[in-house]
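Subject — a protein and its fold

Tokens — whole-number codes for backbone shape
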Amino acid sequence: MIRRAKEKLVLQYYGMVNLFTTDFRRMRTHEGFKRYFKNTGWLFLGRLGGMAISFYSSVYLVRYLGPENNGALSYALSFVALFGFLASLGIDSILYRDLVDRPHDRDKLLGTALGLKIIGSLITIAAIFTALPFMYNDARVNLIIIIIAASLIFQSFNVFQYFFQANLLSKHTTVVYLTVTALLTTMKLSVIWLHKGLLFIALVLFLEPILYFLGHWFVYQRQQLKISQWQFDHNLARSMFIVSLPLILSSAFASIAGRIDQVMIKQLMDIRSVGLYDAAVRIAEVWYFVPSIIISSVFPAIVNAKKVGHAVYRNRLIKLTLYVFLGSVAVALPIYLFAPLIIRLLYGVAYMPAVGVLRIYVWAGIGVGMAAIVNNYLIIEHRTSSVFFVNFFSMAMNVLLNLYLIPKFGISGAALATLISYIAIPIIAIIINNKKRYEK
């Protein structure tokens, strides 16, 4: 009986592989697939190239700073990120969807989104300055927080990248990304070689969104388009804000879930523990760009499939979910197995306590990929209220688990809290949507 069951599983496995292979061969001859695949290829190439350029400097930086200084920098970044939802106002996904659906309203959409995001970034900076006096930080950490917070104004111009992605022009954003990454890497290495310290690293991070803005602006003009033609429409702004209101809170919950662990480690343990934790997280998250690129690039195809028919739409969503899940497992497994060797080779003996964190945290990538698909699906279906509830429950779970697990297991407890809360997102989404269908 056991032998028959094994044979059945083997047959099912090879049947699935054969199905995917046949399906891919059929799709690659399709013109639409070629366009999306080419777009995804440019995004993937850019991220992979950028990662290769910056990975060495990142490792060198962590080694140079040591656990304590790395913890100070990581804590400052996490603290600013907790307020980041106010800067984006949750409109990124709405803007992307509308640029795909209504390309003729390009100038109004981009101009209105930019105006809203600038207002949001000013509110964010004010909120950070208000919160700082209540935190038990030293003067150095507070100064780093202020420098990083000031860069939020220029992060508002990331609306450019949604225009390029919506129009399958990711080749241009790839060139900008690689150029800026090379410049930033050179700056960081120069700071390290000249022994200028943590403050100059923060200044390099301040320059990052400025360089991206200048690069995207230059490429946008090369498309015979002008930023001066962008228009801020009050009615559209009101509409976008109302639609994205649940997403603002959802972004808040996502920011808290993604960054609260490092802030709580600093409060419940010490700054050195934050540095160890951050070192492991950097490795675990280094490949997160893969599912995000696939999802963001295929997103227009899924939006268009909904117009064609429910069967095509459902089929594309299922395939996307399978590919992201299998790809996530394929990357996470070797990192889990070779975690001690990876930590020792990259960071040295001082960071060996981070091995446990890496082995736990790397599996959270599965949840990240699934959560991205769930959030995009709910946005396509105009169920932004569901996105709100899903992210709220995930955030609440993360905070409560951190409060319980950090005192009990230290930084490994924080990694476990993140893993559980990320994996829970698609489960919570299924429960909420099934409940809504039952109520109907």
About this structure: Residues 31-82 form the longest helix (52 residues). Residues 50-439 form one domain. Residues 8-17 have pLDDT under 50 and may be disordered.
